[in-house]
Amino acid sequence: MGGLTERLYGHRNFISIFLVTGVIGSTVSYINIENGVVAAGASGAIFGCLGSLVSFFYIRKKAFGKSGKQTLNGLIILALVNLAFGFVFPAVDNWAHIGGFIAGLSSGYFLAHHPRTTQPSHRFKIPDIGQKVRLPLLIFFAVSITISVLAIGNAMYEPTKVFPIF
After folding, report:
1. Residue 134: pLDDT over 70
2. Which residues are known to be catalytic?
3. Where does residue 112 rank: exposed (0-12), middle (13-18), buried (19+ CB within 10 A)?
4. Residue-level pLDDT at 118
5. What pTM does this model have?
6. How many structural domains does the chain have?
7. Whole-angstrom Cα distance, residue 79 to residue 139?
């Protein structure tokens, strides 16, 4: 996610997107979570990168053709699946995800008009992989993320069960 964002927006814009969306995601989380619980992590920034990619491919869907539209659809599905998991599992901080994603949509929209991103790079071409490969990859990544989130959540509340060494 970050590598693609960096290639499309450039190094400086990527750092800006990552840091700004991470801070905004954390702020939205802090404002909306009860009991003053402070959440830590980079998920808001990662969702910010996802949001900036959605903006980029939405603005440039004609320039990339069919593969750009497919990429846009895949990114939207990825965001929705991850948000759905956040609503199902209580240890996931969806406020940070939502805040980071919206900040990423906004920053990506404005930065996509930057001269660095005006024309798609000739070196970078989105591979057009078939539907049979795309769906299993999406499911694999969604399940991997879910398992990771559950393990981290369990480690926070009961570290001896997840990591018996402690």
Report:
1. no
2. 43, 97
3. buried
4. 47
5. 0.66
6. 1
7. 13
